[in-house]
C-alpha cells in the first residue's frame, strides 16, 4: 500500500470521519479549518498540506497530532517519499 503523504492524509481523515460518525462540516467547525480546504484535502487537490493544518484537523477530531498520525497509513514503508 504505497501512498504519498497527501493520499495518506485524505484516507486518514475519511477513516476517522466514518469511525466517529462525523461530517466534514462538523470537522470544519471543530477544527477551524475551512470546509472547502477540508474538501480539497480529501479530494487531493491540495499539493502540499501544512503541518499546522494537519494539527488543526487532529484537534477537530479531539486527538493529538501523535494520535492522528498513529496509523499504518503514515508508516514509512507505506509511503512514497
Write structural notes for this entry.
The chain has a single domain, classed as 434 Repressor (Amino-terminal Domain). The protein is globular and about 35 Å long. The chain is mainly alpha-helical and 81 residues long. It is built from 5 helices and no strands.
Features:
81 residues, 0% strand, 434 Repressor (Amino-terminal Domain), single chain, mainly alpha, 5 helices
Secondary structure topology:
Layout (H helix, E strand, L loop, with lengths): L4 H16 L3 H8 L3 H8 L8 H10 L4 H5 L12
What structural category arises from helix and sheet content? mainly alpha
Order of helices and strands: HHHHH
The DSSP helix count reads 5
Supply the CATH class.
Mainly Alpha
CATH topology: 434 Repressor (Amino-terminal Domain)
How much of the polypeptide forms β-strand, as a percent range? under 5%
Low-confidence stretches: none
Which second-level CATH architecture applies?
Answer: Orthogonal Bundle
Number of strands: 0
- Domain count, please report it: 1
Please summarize the sheet with the most strands: none
Coarse morphology? globular
Q: Estimate the helix proportion, in percent.
A: 55-70%
CATH fourth-tier homologous superfamily: lambda repressor-like DNA-binding domains
Summarize the structure.
This protein has a single domain (5-74), classed as 434 Repressor (Amino-terminal Domain) (Orthogonal Bundle), CATH 1.10.260.40.
Amino acid at each position: 500500500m504505497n501512498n504519498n503523504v497527501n493520499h495518506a492524509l485524505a484516507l486518514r481523515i475519511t477513516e476517522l470521519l466514518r469511525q466517529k460518525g462525523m461530517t466534514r462540516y462538523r470537522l470544519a467547525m471543530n477544527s477551524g479549518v475551512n470546509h472547502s480546504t477540508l474538501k480539497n484535502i480529501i479530494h487531493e487537490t491540495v499539493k502540499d498540506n501544512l503541518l499546522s493544518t494537519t494539527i488543526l484537523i487532529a484537534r477537530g477530531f479531539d486527538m493529538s497530532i501523535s494520535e492522528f498520525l498513529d496509523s499504518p497509513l503514515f508508516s514509512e514503508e507505506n509511503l512514497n517519499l
